[in-house]
Structure formats: structure tokens, C-alpha cells
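User: For my dataset I need records formatted as: sequence, then C-alpha cells, nothing else. Please produce one.
Assistant:
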Amino acid sequence: MWRTKDNTFTISSERRDMLTRVKNELLYRVRRLRGCGPRVIHPVATFPGADASCICVVAHPDDEILWLSSVLSEHSRVVACFAEEVADEGLGKARRRAMSQLPYAVSVCLGLTEPGLYETVNWRRTGMDERSLPEMAVDASALQHAYRALMQRLREHVAGVEHVFTHNPWGEYGHEEHVLVYAALRALKSEFGYQLWYSNYCADRNSSYAARFMGNGISVGAVARETNAALYRRCQRVYMDAGCWTWCDPWPLYETEYLLPDSLVFDENAGFGRAFTLN
């Protein structure tokens, strides 16, 4: 760079190129800090057709119709993991009775006792362990026991299945046992080779945790599905008659829910948030 007779400055082309590279590097770093980093495009998963082998796996009886009604019909296979609750001895019996009366082709209750994880996570501050689980204020050995029991019992039900529908990684409204089921199915996915799907429900209290999953790319493969209001009302009545409907009533069922393929990689530094509707 040098000064000319009219007091202006001239920059050589080499120095101009260097400054441009420095400017672009600084802009890149600023975008990364603001969550606008490089895009990561995930392979598009094909949503299953009518002849595909599918199963719906949820934590508790009634979760399937609350969070995944758009993929359910009279031809569905549904597995609920937990039945017993330590604080309510009659709940497990009521849940089993209800599941025997549901209008699905197959409805199975594994009958596991709830590990009592609800409200053990600080959703605004939690990290994540190697199992895709948030940090829970529970005994580590008890958590590991529940996780292994789930994986052991679920193996026979997911073997040979092409698509599995379950809870999302943030547990819809932040139910830790929902996340536990997701984590077990995510771990089994590499063994059995199925495509894992979950819906888009979220709540205020765990929205910041959910957003951390969405920061590693553009939402690819999200499928909008109309919820099954008629089947919802039919199943809700079965659960209510059995005395084991555990959600609010009335519940304003959304007209549409999104099903997302499980292709997320937890990355604190990734950018360009994923874009899709949250219910």
C-alpha cells in the first residue's frame, strides 16, 4: 500500500486479496457465534408407504395417541413400555386393561415399572451424555438399569421392522422417561437398521434444549401429517373408562403434526438452525 500525489491510498492486488480473506474469515466466525454456520444437509429419509413394516413405541399407554396419532390406524402395531407406577399400585392394572381394548391390530404393554425420572432434569442447563440422555438428578446405577431393561425388552419387537415411531429427543413436554425410550431406540437402530421417526411436540420449559438438537443442519425430510381425531377420541374414551388417561381433558388436538427422521447429531458449535413447525 502506498500514498499517491492526491493523498489517496492504493492497495496492491495481493494485499487486497489478503484483506478480503481476513474479512471473510471474520464474518464466518461471527456467523458461527450467532448460530449461522455452514449448512449440513442430511440424507432425506423416505416416509413409509402403506405396505412398510412399522411399529410405534412409546413410554406409557396413551402416549401413542397423544403424540403420534397421525401414523396410527386400526392396522397399527403399538408397544408401550411402562405400566406400573410405584406411587399408584392400581395404575398398571388399569393400563393393561385399556391396552387390551384398544382398536389397534397389535397393542403390547411391556409392563416395566416407571423408573421415576419425571422432573429430574433442569432443561435450561442440562448437558447430554453418550446415550443421548440429558443429565438427570437420579442415581446413575438406577438410570443405567432402566436403560438396559428397555433395550433388552425392545429387541424382540423391533427386529425385522423397517420404521419405528417414538418420542422425540426432548421428550415432547420434557418427560424424561420419553427421552429414555428414544435413547434406547436410537441405540438399537444401528443394530437392527430401521429408520427412526418422531414428532414435533415441544413445551416452553424444554424448548432451549430442543433447539440445541436443531442447530446442526437444515430440516430435511420432515413430513406433515394430519392427526387422526376420530381415532384419538376413540382411544381416549378407552383410557378414560379404564381410569388411566394421564393427560389433560379437553386437550386441543392439533390438526397437523410433523414427523421427523432421526438424523440429528448433537453439536454445541453447529450453525444454521433447523427449520420446522413445533406444536
